[in-house]
Amino acid sequence: MDHSPLAGQGPGSGAQPAPGRPATPPEQPPASPAKPAPGHWLPLVATCLGTFLLLVYATIVTVALPRMADDLHAGFGALQWIVDVYTLALAGLLLGMGSLGDAFGRKRLYVVGLAVFTLATLGCGLAPNAQVLIAARAVQGVAGAAMFGTLLPLIGLTYHGRDRARAFAVWGAVAGAAAGVGNVLGGLLTEFLSWPWIFYGAVPVCAATLVLSVKVLVRDARTPARIDWPGIVTFTLAATGITFGCVRGGERGWSDPSTLLAFAVGACALLAFLLVERATTHPMLPLALLRTPAFNGLLIAACGYYLAAFGFLPVLSLWLQNGVRLGSLATSLVITVQPAAFFATSALAGGVLRRIPARWAIGGGTVLTGVGDLALLAVQPGSSWPVLLPGLVLTGVGAGLVSPVLPALAMSAAPPEHSGAAAAAANSARQLGLALGIALLGTVFHRYVPGTGDGASPGAYAAGLDAVFLLAGVIGVGGGLSALRLMRPRGAVR
Asked: Where is the composition biased (Low complexity) (predicted)?
């Protein structure tokens, strides 16, 4: 049995009832709920739809990048920002939005975020140039952060006991699969319609989700807590500076003054964030959590597995379309292998994951994503898409092991009053891993393949992809091994 701080304390344990709900009497049979209402799972449907929408847009533009480059006359740097600015806003503001949700009401903030997200999505489809599209994507990311920062607490308010465990497992599977499914949807819409339809097509779904959310989500009380504005600002500056430095380094070189300035701003802001959180009486992220080795292992794995599993997809899409000369539909079908492996793993291993030690699900799954990246090193000059299949399967299986159990483990790692902050920190680490992965791996690829890669030699493509997969693999394996060590039960010899 795993005796780590993350084991046996999850939402499924029934030890902590949802805030605002009475505890279920011990003598009540779990198979006979007091009120088996037909709409019992509608709040989960609403939150999963919102989760899918906001996370699918982290990757849905990936397969459409070559078409966007042609239609909007966008260079490689602009293409990187079209992908990355959304994920960066999502990761940088997620922790802060959790605090705002506590102060203003989680349902209220979620509904406002979803409404703004809907308008921003429409604005992305109408964008006449790359600059407007990047700005609309930034607004989309800010709104997505408002949604993402409140979703897990809303689920926790609605369900308890075994139902809460099931709800978190379903939510985790949806959250993990969205990144892979986004590539498929983007390819289909781009092939049969045009790239703006990857945004137009979501507007009716956003509107329907908004109506459903207003009707079925529980209205929580506002908490008269002080908002940690300095923490929100410094954390956002840190995430933005570091990611901007990665993108800028690929565009202008690592010794360019703007690159060095971005890294300096990011490092200083990160130090300021730690000092602010230490000094304030109402921190956005209690630093006591960061003194828990198991929680640090969870954050490392969350960042590492998302980077290793999904950070390479934009450059892989460019190779498949501009190097192998596949169409958008064929490219999306190749990438479909990864979400298919993810879904199969989540479905088949769900029961097993609840019976094995937490560290093996999280750390082992992250290691497996890194191994999948290393399997993709089989790409050689003249290779075609079949060489990708083993690596895509392994990265999908690895992500499928981690994602369903991550939110519940994060919330169980903290005292009840800080469980929302713990979940937001884990989700923020996951999204920051994707943002940094897209920026860093795109930068490495760009050293070998200039521009969008159209017309680059097979040798250049192979060298660029090998460098990308090697770096992603090292990060995945290293992050997983670190998590296994940090999440080791106290007193264990090995």
From this structure: 1-18
